[in-house]
């Protein structure tokens, strides 16, 4: 049986950074599930049709990391039929041996409720905005407003809202360096990894 690490959290909390490091360390497959929603939004047209037609190549587009693509993603992510169209791909990805790390908003709650490790990675709004602004070379105040709008939309939607699974370990990275955040996440995996 594949070993699944589910990592959820709000925008720019550092979940992708941790997910990539864990996948590299353990030799697991990694899926940034936000890319599915970003690529669906970037396809344009009817979002449900776009989600159903998504191919792995769509995830390689080089315009998916922009703030605009993030906003478009969070709008179409609130549509239940869009989410339903993306479930099978995520389940197949998670089933790969020897294990998989998926990061997103609903991995521990909806997509992989039986994941062996569940982390909810968070950080203060200001810290997240500063990190994302530095990454994009953007204005921190503008990024802060966008993050808050996206988090509100993601948390308040009716289907698969952003929230920690009751059995998730909460990891607040506000005052942690990247190395310390990865070490804290790895300590949790080590506790639960069968030997
Ligand atoms: N602990 C940390 N300390 C400082 N910078 C960090 C830390 N963790 C992540 N970062 C930086 O913050 C930015 C956002 O991190 P990352 O992309 O991992 O977040 P995310 O939660 O996956 O974002 P998204 O929701 O957009 O997918 C990146 O530039 C990353 O290098
Ligand atoms: N499991 C997920 C992952 C993402 N979303 C939505 O996509 C937007 C972009 O995600 P990033 O991780 O790339 O920032 C995000 O704001 C969510 O609306 C989702 O709904 N479920």
TrEMBL record:
GO MF, any single term: CMP kinase activity
CDD domains: CMPK
Entry protein name: Cytidylate kinase
HAMAP family xref list: Cytidyl_kinase_type1
Keywords for the protein's UniProt record, in alphabetical order: ATP-binding, Cytoplasm, Kinase, Nucleotide-binding, Transferase
Residues of the Cytidylate kinase domain: 5-40, 61-190
Entry GO terms, CC: cytoplasm
Reactions catalysed according to its record: CMP + ATP = CDP + ADP; dCMP + ATP = dCDP + ADP
EC class name: transferase
GO BP annotations, alphabetical order: pyrimidine nucleotide metabolic process
Record Pfam families: Cytidylate_kin
Entry's EC annotation: 2.7.4.25
Lineage: Bacteria, Pseudomonadati, Pseudomonadota, Alphaproteobacteria, Rhodobacterales
Domain of life, per lineage: Bacteria
UniProt-annotated binding residues for ATP: 9-17
Intracellular or extracellular location(s): Cytoplasm
Main location: cytoplasm
Organism listed in the record: Paracoccus alcaliphilus
Keyword Ribosomal protein in annotation: no
The family this protein is said to belong to: Belongs to the cytidylate kinase family. Type 1 subfamily.
InterPro entries on file: Cytidylate_kin (IPR003136), Cytidylate_kinase_dom (IPR011994), P-loop_NTPase (IPR027417)
């Amino acid at each position: 049986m594949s070993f699944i690490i589910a990592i959820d959290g709000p925008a720019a909390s550092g979940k992708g950074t941790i997910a990539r490091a864990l996948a590299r360390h353990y030799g697991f497959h990694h899926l940034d599930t936000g890319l599915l929603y970003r690529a669906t939004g970037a396809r344009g047209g009817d979002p449900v049709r776009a989600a159903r037609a998504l191919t792995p190549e769509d995830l390689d587009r080089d315009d998916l990391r922009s703030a605009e693509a993030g906003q478009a993603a969070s709008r179409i992510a609130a549509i239940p039929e869009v989410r339903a169209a993306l479930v099978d791909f995520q389940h197949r990805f998670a089933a790969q041996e020897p294990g998989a790390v998926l990061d997103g908003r609903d991995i521990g709650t909806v997509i992989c409720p039986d994941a062996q490790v569940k982390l909810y990675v968070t950080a203060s709004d200001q810290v997240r905005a500063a990190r994302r602004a530095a990454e994009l070379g953007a204005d921190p105040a503008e990024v802060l407003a966008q993050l808050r709008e996206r988090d509100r939309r993601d948390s308040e939607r009716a289907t698969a809202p952003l929230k920690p699974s009751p059995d998730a370990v909460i990891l607040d990275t506000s005052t942690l360096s990247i190395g310390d955040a990865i070490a804290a996440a790895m300590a949790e995996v080590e506790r639960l990894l069968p030997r």
